[in-house]
Protein backbone atom coordinates (compact mmCIF):
# COMPACT_ATOMS: atom_id res chain seq x y z
CA UNK A 1 0.00 0.00 0.00
CA UNK A 2 1.55 3.26 -1.13
CA UNK A 3 0.81 6.37 0.79
CA UNK A 4 1.44 9.74 -0.80
CA UNK A 5 2.23 12.76 1.31
CA UNK A 6 1.55 16.18 -0.09
CA UNK A 7 2.78 19.48 1.25
CA UNK A 8 0.20 22.15 1.84
CA UNK A 9 0.81 24.91 -0.69
CA UNK A 10 0.28 28.02 1.33
CA UNK A 11 2.18 31.29 1.29
CA UNK A 12 0.84 34.00 3.58
CA UNK A 13 1.87 37.64 3.82
CA UNK A 14 4.51 37.08 6.51
CA UNK A 15 6.16 34.26 4.56
CA UNK A 16 6.20 36.36 1.39
CA UNK A 17 7.79 39.32 3.17
CA UNK A 18 10.42 37.09 4.77
CA UNK A 19 11.33 35.51 1.41
CA UNK A 20 11.76 38.94 -0.19
CA UNK A 21 13.70 40.13 2.87
CA UNK A 22 16.06 37.15 2.58
CA UNK A 23 16.52 37.72 -1.16
CA UNK A 24 17.35 41.40 -0.72
CA UNK A 25 19.70 41.04 2.23
CA UNK A 26 21.12 37.62 1.46
CA UNK A 27 24.39 36.64 3.08
CA UNK A 28 26.04 39.99 2.43
CA UNK A 29 24.87 41.28 5.78
CA UNK A 30 27.15 38.77 7.49
CA UNK A 31 30.17 39.36 5.25
CA UNK A 32 30.09 43.15 4.98
CA UNK A 33 29.43 43.97 8.63
CA UNK A 34 33.02 43.46 9.75
CA UNK A 35 34.39 45.35 6.77
CA UNK A 36 32.14 48.37 7.37
CA UNK A 37 32.86 48.32 11.10
CA UNK A 38 36.60 48.21 10.35
CA UNK A 39 36.28 51.35 8.26
CA UNK A 40 33.96 53.32 10.55
CA UNK A 41 34.94 51.87 13.97
CA UNK A 42 31.55 53.02 15.26
CA UNK A 43 28.64 50.62 15.71
CA UNK A 44 26.06 53.42 15.66
CA UNK A 45 27.39 54.70 12.35
CA UNK A 46 27.17 51.19 10.89
CA UNK A 47 23.48 51.07 11.84
CA UNK A 48 22.89 54.53 10.37
CA UNK A 49 24.54 53.46 7.11
CA UNK A 50 22.36 50.34 7.00
CA UNK A 51 19.30 52.53 7.49
CA UNK A 52 20.37 54.84 4.67
CA UNK A 53 20.98 51.88 2.40
CA UNK A 54 17.51 50.57 3.26
CA UNK A 55 15.98 53.93 2.35
CA UNK A 56 17.75 53.85 -1.02
CA UNK A 57 16.51 50.29 -1.65
CA UNK A 58 12.93 51.19 -0.72
CA UNK A 59 13.04 54.27 -2.97
CA UNK A 60 14.25 52.16 -5.90
CA UNK A 61 11.58 49.53 -5.36
CA UNK A 62 8.86 52.20 -5.17
CA UNK A 63 10.11 53.66 -8.47
CA UNK A 64 9.83 50.25 -10.12
CA UNK A 65 6.36 49.77 -8.62
CA UNK A 66 5.27 53.12 -10.06
CA UNK A 67 6.66 52.25 -13.49
CA UNK A 68 4.94 48.88 -13.41
CA UNK A 69 1.61 50.46 -12.50
CA UNK A 70 1.99 52.96 -15.37
CA UNK A 71 3.05 50.37 -17.98
CA UNK A 72 1.96 46.83 -17.01
CA UNK A 73 3.94 44.99 -19.70
CA UNK A 74 6.42 42.15 -19.85
CA UNK A 75 10.02 42.98 -20.61
CA UNK A 76 11.40 44.54 -17.46
CA UNK A 77 13.65 47.53 -17.84
CA UNK A 78 13.68 47.29 -21.63
CA UNK A 79 9.91 47.88 -21.72
CA UNK A 80 10.32 50.96 -19.51
CA UNK A 81 13.16 52.31 -21.65
CA UNK A 82 11.21 51.63 -24.85
CA UNK A 83 8.29 53.73 -23.62
CA UNK A 84 10.26 56.54 -22.00
CA UNK A 85 13.39 57.13 -24.11
CA UNK A 86 14.48 57.51 -27.69
CA UNK A 87 15.51 54.52 -29.80
CA UNK A 88 19.28 55.02 -29.39
CA UNK A 89 19.05 54.96 -25.56
CA UNK A 90 17.77 51.41 -25.53
CA UNK A 91 19.97 48.35 -25.48
Automatic annotation (TrEMBL):
Keywords: Membrane, Transmembrane, Transmembrane helix
Domain of life assignment: Bacteria
Subcellular location: Membrane
Pfam families recorded: AA_permease_2
Record-annotated membrane-spanning stretches: 12-37, 43-65
GO cellular component terms, semicolon-separated: membrane
Membrane topology: Multi-pass membrane protein
A GO molecular-function annotation: L-amino acid transmembrane transporter activity
First-listed, main subcellular location of the protein, grouped into a coarse class: membrane
UniProt-recorded name of the protein: Amino acid permease/ SLC12A domain-containing protein
Amino acid sequence: MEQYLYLKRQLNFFSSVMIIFADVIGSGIFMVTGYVFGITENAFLVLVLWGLGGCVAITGSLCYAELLSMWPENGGEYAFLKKSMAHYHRF
